[in-house]
Amino acid sequence: MEETLGVTAAPQIPKQRGEQLLDTAVRYAEERHWDVFPGTSLEEHGGSAPLCSCEAADCPVPGAHPTRPDWATQATGSAVAARRLWAKSPNASILLPTGRTFDAIDVSETAGCLALARMERMDITLGPISCTPNRRMIFFVLPGAAVKVPDLIRKVGWPPATIDLVTRGEGDYVVAPPSRMGTHGSVQWARRPTAANRWLPDAEELISPLAYACGREAAAARAR
Structure pTM? Predict the structure, then answer.
Protein backbone atom coordinates (compact mmCIF):
# COMPACT_ATOMS: atom_id res chain seq x y z
CA MET A 1 0.00 0.00 0.00
CA GLU A 2 2.92 2.27 0.72
CA GLU A 3 3.95 2.34 -2.93
CA THR A 4 0.57 3.73 -3.98
CA LEU A 5 -0.02 7.46 -3.93
CA GLY A 6 -3.65 7.13 -3.07
CA VAL A 7 -4.46 10.40 -4.83
CA THR A 8 -5.76 9.99 -8.34
CA ALA A 9 -4.57 13.35 -9.62
CA ALA A 10 -1.05 13.18 -8.19
CA PRO A 11 1.66 11.43 -10.20
CA GLN A 12 4.14 9.17 -8.43
CA ILE A 13 7.70 10.13 -7.57
CA PRO A 14 9.85 8.23 -10.08
CA LYS A 15 11.55 5.01 -9.04
CA GLN A 16 15.17 5.40 -8.07
CA ARG A 17 16.51 3.38 -10.98
CA GLY A 18 16.22 3.99 -14.70
CA GLU A 19 14.81 7.50 -14.39
CA GLN A 20 16.36 10.72 -15.60
CA LEU A 21 17.82 12.85 -12.84
CA LEU A 22 16.24 15.92 -14.40
CA ASP A 23 12.72 14.46 -14.28
CA THR A 24 13.20 13.26 -10.72
CA ALA A 25 14.48 16.63 -9.49
CA VAL A 26 11.55 18.37 -11.15
CA ARG A 27 9.06 16.03 -9.52
CA TYR A 28 10.58 16.49 -6.05
CA ALA A 29 10.02 20.24 -6.47
CA GLU A 30 6.63 19.91 -8.12
CA GLU A 31 5.02 17.12 -6.11
CA ARG A 32 6.70 17.35 -2.69
CA HIS A 33 7.50 21.09 -2.72
CA TRP A 34 11.06 20.23 -1.72
CA ASP A 35 13.88 22.61 -2.58
CA VAL A 36 16.49 20.95 -4.78
CA PHE A 37 19.91 21.89 -6.10
CA PRO A 38 22.40 20.12 -8.37
CA GLY A 39 25.55 18.65 -6.92
CA THR A 40 28.63 17.16 -8.48
CA SER A 41 28.51 14.14 -10.78
CA LEU A 42 30.56 11.04 -11.51
CA GLU A 43 32.51 11.12 -14.74
CA GLU A 44 33.84 8.13 -16.63
CA HIS A 45 37.50 8.13 -17.67
CA GLY A 46 38.16 5.26 -20.03
CA GLY A 47 38.24 1.96 -18.21
CA SER A 48 39.11 3.42 -14.82
CA ALA A 49 36.68 3.97 -11.97
CA PRO A 50 34.50 7.08 -12.38
CA LEU A 51 35.79 10.20 -10.66
CA CYS A 52 33.99 13.12 -9.05
CA SER A 53 33.51 16.11 -11.31
CA CYS A 54 35.22 18.25 -8.62
CA GLU A 55 38.46 16.53 -9.72
CA ALA A 56 39.73 16.21 -6.14
CA ALA A 57 41.72 12.99 -5.78
CA ASP A 58 40.64 12.61 -2.16
CA CYS A 59 36.99 13.62 -2.59
CA PRO A 60 35.12 12.19 0.44
CA VAL A 61 31.75 11.91 -1.32
CA PRO A 62 32.45 11.44 -5.05
CA GLY A 63 29.62 12.65 -7.24
CA ALA A 64 27.34 13.74 -4.42
CA HIS A 65 28.26 17.06 -2.84
CA PRO A 66 27.67 20.77 -3.61
CA THR A 67 29.66 22.37 -6.40
CA ARG A 68 29.90 25.79 -4.76
CA PRO A 69 30.06 27.26 -1.24
CA ASP A 70 26.90 29.31 -1.73
CA TRP A 71 24.83 26.26 -2.65
CA ALA A 72 22.02 27.31 -0.30
CA THR A 73 21.22 30.28 -2.54
CA GLN A 74 21.04 27.98 -5.57
CA ALA A 75 18.41 25.67 -4.08
CA THR A 76 14.98 26.10 -5.62
CA GLY A 77 11.47 24.84 -5.07
CA SER A 78 10.46 25.83 -8.60
CA ALA A 79 9.97 22.97 -11.05
CA VAL A 80 10.78 25.33 -13.93
CA ALA A 81 14.05 26.43 -12.31
CA ALA A 82 14.95 22.82 -11.43
CA ARG A 83 14.42 21.78 -15.04
CA ARG A 84 16.70 24.59 -16.17
CA LEU A 85 19.44 23.67 -13.68
CA TRP A 86 19.52 19.98 -14.64
CA ALA A 87 19.27 20.78 -18.34
CA LYS A 88 22.66 22.47 -17.88
CA SER A 89 24.09 19.57 -15.80
CA PRO A 90 22.06 16.43 -16.64
CA ASN A 91 24.32 14.09 -14.64
CA ALA A 92 24.36 16.21 -11.49
CA SER A 93 23.35 14.52 -8.26
CA ILE A 94 20.14 15.70 -6.60
CA LEU A 95 20.74 17.38 -3.25
CA LEU A 96 17.99 18.46 -0.85
CA PRO A 97 18.67 21.21 1.71
CA THR A 98 17.52 20.36 5.22
CA GLY A 99 16.04 22.84 7.68
CA ARG A 100 13.41 24.05 5.21
CA THR A 101 10.55 21.65 4.52
CA PHE A 102 12.16 18.84 6.52
CA ASP A 103 15.07 17.88 8.76
CA ALA A 104 16.75 14.48 8.59
CA ILE A 105 17.90 11.97 11.19
CA ASP A 106 20.90 10.00 9.94
CA VAL A 107 21.81 6.64 11.53
CA SER A 108 23.63 3.49 10.49
CA GLU A 109 21.70 1.06 8.33
CA THR A 110 21.88 -1.61 11.05
CA ALA A 111 20.40 0.68 13.70
CA GLY A 112 17.90 2.12 11.24
CA CYS A 113 16.51 -1.29 10.29
CA LEU A 114 16.17 -2.29 13.95
CA ALA A 115 14.44 0.99 14.79
CA LEU A 116 12.17 0.74 11.75
CA ALA A 117 10.97 -2.71 12.82
CA ARG A 118 10.11 -1.34 16.28
CA MET A 119 8.35 1.69 14.81
CA GLU A 120 6.19 -0.52 12.62
CA ARG A 121 5.19 -2.65 15.63
CA MET A 122 4.38 0.56 17.52
CA ASP A 123 2.34 1.81 14.53
CA ILE A 124 4.31 5.06 14.39
CA THR A 125 3.58 7.30 11.42
CA LEU A 126 6.67 7.56 9.24
CA GLY A 127 7.84 9.93 6.54
CA PRO A 128 10.10 9.05 3.61
CA ILE A 129 13.25 7.07 4.48
CA SER A 130 16.30 6.77 2.24
CA CYS A 131 19.27 4.43 2.27
CA THR A 132 22.73 5.36 1.04
CA PRO A 133 25.38 3.08 -0.47
CA ASN A 134 27.66 3.79 2.50
CA ARG A 135 25.09 2.00 4.68
CA ARG A 136 23.32 4.95 6.27
CA MET A 137 19.57 5.31 6.72
CA ILE A 138 17.97 8.78 6.61
CA PHE A 139 14.60 9.46 8.29
CA PHE A 140 12.76 12.59 7.08
CA VAL A 141 11.09 14.52 9.92
CA LEU A 142 9.58 17.95 10.53
CA PRO A 143 11.93 20.95 10.53
CA GLY A 144 13.36 21.92 13.90
CA ALA A 145 14.64 18.46 14.80
CA ALA A 146 18.29 19.47 14.72
CA VAL A 147 17.75 21.88 17.61
CA LYS A 148 15.85 19.59 19.96
CA VAL A 149 17.15 16.07 19.22
CA PRO A 150 20.14 16.22 21.64
CA ASP A 151 17.81 16.98 24.57
CA LEU A 152 15.34 14.34 23.40
CA ILE A 153 18.14 11.75 23.36
CA ARG A 154 19.14 12.68 26.92
CA LYS A 155 15.53 12.39 28.08
CA VAL A 156 15.37 8.77 26.90
CA GLY A 157 18.58 7.98 28.75
CA TRP A 158 21.41 8.21 26.21
CA PRO A 159 24.32 10.69 26.17
CA PRO A 160 24.19 12.07 22.59
CA ALA A 161 27.96 11.80 22.11
CA THR A 162 27.94 8.05 22.77
CA ILE A 163 25.61 7.02 19.92
CA ASP A 164 25.89 7.28 16.15
CA LEU A 165 22.91 9.52 15.45
CA VAL A 166 23.29 12.71 13.39
CA THR A 167 20.55 15.28 12.81
CA ARG A 168 20.70 17.40 9.65
CA GLY A 169 18.99 20.77 9.81
CA GLU A 170 19.52 24.32 8.59
CA GLY A 171 22.73 24.72 6.57
CA ASP A 172 23.01 21.03 5.74
CA TYR A 173 21.61 18.75 3.04
CA VAL A 174 20.93 15.13 2.12
CA VAL A 175 21.58 13.28 -1.14
CA ALA A 176 18.35 12.20 -2.84
CA PRO A 177 17.60 9.08 -4.89
CA PRO A 178 18.57 8.11 -7.54
CA SER A 179 21.88 9.97 -7.18
CA ARG A 180 25.05 7.90 -7.24
CA MET A 181 27.53 8.17 -4.38
CA GLY A 182 31.00 7.07 -5.39
CA THR A 183 31.40 3.68 -7.01
CA HIS A 184 29.31 1.77 -4.48
CA GLY A 185 25.86 2.50 -5.89
CA SER A 186 22.94 4.88 -5.72
CA VAL A 187 20.86 6.31 -2.93
CA GLN A 188 17.53 4.48 -2.78
CA TRP A 189 14.20 4.85 -1.02
CA ALA A 190 13.48 2.43 1.82
CA ARG A 191 10.10 4.20 2.03
CA ARG A 192 9.51 6.36 -0.99
CA PRO A 193 7.57 9.64 -0.85
CA THR A 194 3.84 9.09 -1.30
CA ALA A 195 0.65 10.96 -0.54
CA ALA A 196 0.31 8.80 2.58
CA ASN A 197 3.52 10.17 4.11
CA ARG A 198 3.27 13.75 2.90
CA TRP A 199 2.76 14.86 6.53
CA LEU A 200 6.06 14.26 8.28
CA PRO A 201 6.43 13.00 11.86
CA ASP A 202 8.00 15.09 14.59
CA ALA A 203 11.46 13.90 15.69
CA GLU A 204 10.07 13.31 19.18
CA GLU A 205 7.90 10.48 17.81
CA LEU A 206 10.91 8.60 16.40
CA ILE A 207 13.71 9.36 18.81
CA SER A 208 13.07 6.63 21.39
CA PRO A 209 13.34 3.65 18.99
CA LEU A 210 16.17 5.33 17.06
CA ALA A 211 18.21 6.11 20.17
CA TYR A 212 17.57 2.62 21.55
CA ALA A 213 18.78 0.99 18.31
CA CYS A 214 21.85 3.23 18.13
CA GLY A 215 22.59 2.52 21.81
CA ARG A 216 22.43 -1.22 21.24
CA GLU A 217 24.77 -0.89 18.28
CA ALA A 218 27.23 1.17 20.36
CA ALA A 219 27.12 -1.36 23.21
CA ALA A 220 27.76 -4.22 20.79
CA ALA A 221 30.72 -2.35 19.31
CA ARG A 222 32.24 -1.79 22.78
CA ALA A 223 31.81 -5.47 23.62
CA ARG A 224 33.77 -6.63 20.58
Answer: 0.90
